[in-house]
Structure to design on (177 residues):
């Protein structure tokens, strides 16, 4: 009787182990996309500052001047990571989506790679409502978007961590790494 129970249990495991493996793999992918990924960032907001002071303080890889008439600067840098596929987008009011309420952006300019401990300085006004510009780039194949927008919820515009969006390519990078 004991031998019969042991054999049936082993047969049960043999039959369902591929199915259990597939279920665990699918759950791993689902939890990968649901889990938030944050990167350490230096995201600083400067008002009433001259850009010469920023050039002295930071190793600037890209200086993006969107509005010459303001003295408001956003300084962005990742101390441990490389920024790739850096693109600047501008809000397009004539490209409003009928199906969704999301604002549409058009590519304005692309930039080269920014290495660790290098910074991007953007000179623009801090908008309220729909941000007129946004930066989009990749860090370790995760997508990060930064919108130049005043958000007074937390009382500060400076950030130490920034949330990344997960994609299929970031999943492959995670598996291969």
């Amino acid at each position: 009787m004991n031998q019969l129970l042991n054999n049936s249990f082993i047969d049960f495991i043999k039959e369902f182990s591929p199915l259990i493996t597939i279920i665990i793999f699918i759950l791993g992918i689902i939890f990968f996309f649901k889990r938030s990924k944050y990167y350490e960032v230096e995201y600083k907001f400067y008002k009433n500052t001259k850009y010469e002071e920023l050039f002295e303080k930071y190793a600037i890889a890209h200086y993006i001047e969107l509005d010459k008439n303001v003295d408001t600067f956003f300084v962005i840098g990742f101390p441990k990571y490389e920024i790739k596929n850096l693109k600047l987008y501008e809000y397009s009011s004539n490209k409003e989506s009928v199906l969704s309420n999301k604002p549409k952006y058009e590519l304005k300019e692309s930039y080269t790679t920014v290495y660790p401990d290098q910074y991007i300085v953007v000179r623009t006004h801090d908008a309220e409502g729909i941000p007129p510009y946004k930066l989009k780039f990749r860090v370790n194949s995760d997508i990060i978007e930064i919108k130049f927008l005043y958000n007074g919820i937390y009382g500060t515009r400076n950030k130490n961590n920034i949330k990344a969006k997960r994609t299929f390519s970031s999943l492959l990078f995670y598996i291969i790494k």
Observations:
- The longest helix spans residues 2-34.
- The chain has three helices and nine strands.
- The radius of gyration is 23 Å.
- Strands lie at 37-47, 60-65, 72-77, 84-91, 105-111, 119-123, 133-139, 142-147, 159-164.
